[in-house]
Design goal:
426 residues; four-stranded antiparallel beta sheet; 37% helix; eight-stranded mixed beta sheet; 2 domains; alpha/beta; binds 4'-deoxy-4'-aminopyridoxal-5'-phosphate; Aspartate Aminotransferase, domain 1; Aspartate Aminotransferase, domain 2; globular
Length: 426
């Protein structure tokens, strides 16, 4: 197990984060963190918990009152038929929930269908549990949604689960009801689990709506739903997430893993989460409205600051601009990536169909346009961003910016970008 970990890719996001700390006055559009502060309901609940001496061990799966509130939220907001608080487990952020789910669910060699592009810890967590991620492409031309026939054709006798993430990080694509019905029917017909990552359930724009796949007919018992307060309540550093799981055996395993990895999630943070749920929910909508304004501001700016270089349609959800790099814009000499260490997760070697393996998608890191573009924007423009290939080979040729930053920071990044792209090509 120990040596096996040496081959698990660590996301480029963490490498870029290190690089950004060495840059003076950076524009931090690289990491997926909102600039808002957690609401007063959370801060006050945390301070009260400290003052009241809630500094001791708690129930492993979380405070009963908190799990009761979460069960109610899941029933009313997500329409999941959660019977009671026992079906809810509190985790140290969404990423911890994902780690636990993969460890509790997978046998070595079990295949899990994962979107490409996708938030890198999804693949790394599956690999860490000795699972085999099989990527299914998302297409920009389809609003960053999958092709139904292609998804169905990726299922083999070894497939154990389908991973869905809507709204998606990094593309902002939102799956339609029809897409989710299709996944649900495949899962029912082929007896598969669905891992549903709903980290961005509250970040949707325009007419787009969030639908939890576990609310579809007969889906709740086979859906492992993953949520976090990181984005909805601007609590990224506090680390609070939760899982909704019907299956009793899986829950027993998850409880063991929770105990072994945290004993319990921080007592103070759990009281903060109660504060979030009992306080006004207006803040969630206020964040969403402001994020939509920032999205529009950023895309308006890109149209002029990066004309002929970067392009894309504003996303329907999440808070990332996943922009296409105009082919040929970077000089030949710039497109090489000796330092980038873009390694193909082992599954991609046998990942079969379209997009993957094409010249634009060299998962081995040679000639990575997206790394070259990211390095240029960071070193010449102080603009943090993530190379698209870090999210999967289908992300090659794209670069991701987080627009959940202050408007002034976005404006500064756009101004700096204008300078970078006006300058001479190397
Ligand atoms: N899922 C997705 C798709 C994400 O982008 C993130 C955070 N970037 C998470 C889950 C987990 O977030 P956290 O661990 O902060 O709860």
């Amino acid at each position: 197990m120990a040596k096996y970990l040496d081959d698990i890719p660590l996301s480029g996001i963490t490498r870029i984060r290190e690089l950004m700390y060495s840059i003076q006055d950076p524009f931090r559009l690289d990491q997926g963190d909102v600039s808002f502060e957690a609401p007063d309901s959370v801060k006050q609940a945390i301070m009260r918990a400290v003052a009241d001496g809630h500094t001791h061990y708690l129930q492993t799966n979380g405070l009963p009152k908190l799990r009761e509130l979460l069960a109610r939220k899941l029933r009313h907001q997500n329409r999941l038929p959660v019977e009671g608080p026992d079906e809810v487990l509190v985790t140290n952020g969404g990423i911890h929930g994902l780690y636990l789910l993969c460890q509790a669910l997978l046998e070595p060699g079990d295949e899990v269908l994962v979107p490409d592009p996708e938030w890198p810890p999804a693949v790394s967590n599956l690999l860490t549990a000795h699972g085999v991620p099989i990527r299914y492409p998302l297409y920009e031309t389809r609003g960053w949604r999958f092709d139904a026939a292609e998804l169905a054709a990726s299922i083999t006798p070894r497939t154990r689960a389908i991973y869905v993430n809507s709204p998606n990080n990094p593309t902002g694509g939102v799956l339609t009801r029809q897409d989710l019905e299709l996944v649900a029917s495949l899962a029912r017909e082929r007896n598969l689990w669905v891992i549903s990552d709903e980290a961005y359930e509250d970040v949707l724009f325009g007419d787009a709506e969030h639908l939890s796949i576990g609310s579809l007919e007969k889906m709740y018992p086979r859906t492992l739903s993953l949520f976090t307060f990181s984005k909805s309540y601007a609590m990224t550093g506090l680390r609070f997430g939760y899982l909704a799981v019907k299956d009793a055996l899986l829950r027993e395993r998850l409880t063991k893993l929770l105990f072994l990895t945290t004993s319990n999630v921080s007592s103070i943070v759990q009281f903060g989460a109660i504060g979030a749920l009992q306080g006004s929910q207006d803040v969630v909508e206020q964040f969403r409205v402001e994020l939509e304004a920032r999205r529009d501001l950023f895309y308006d700016g890109i149209r002029t600051a990066a004309a002929g270089v970067l392009s894309g349609r504003p996303p329907l959800g999440a808070f990332y601009a996943f922009l296409k790099i105009e082919p040929g814009w970077l000089g030949e000499s710039e497109v090489r990536s000796p330092k980038s260490e873009v390694r193909s997760p082992r599954s991609e070697v046998r990942s079969p169909k379209s997009g993957i393996g094409s010249p634009r998608a060299d998962g081995l890191g040679r000639q990575s346009q997206s790394w070259a573009m990211a390095e240029r924007l960071i070193t010449q423009g102080r603009i943090g961003c993530i190379p698209g290939v870090d999210f999967g080979v289908c992300g090659e040729g794209y670069v991701r910016f987080c627009f959940a930053r202050e408007r002034a920071e976005l404006a500064g990044a756009l101004e700096s970008m204008r300078g970078v792209f006006r300058g001479p090509k190397p």
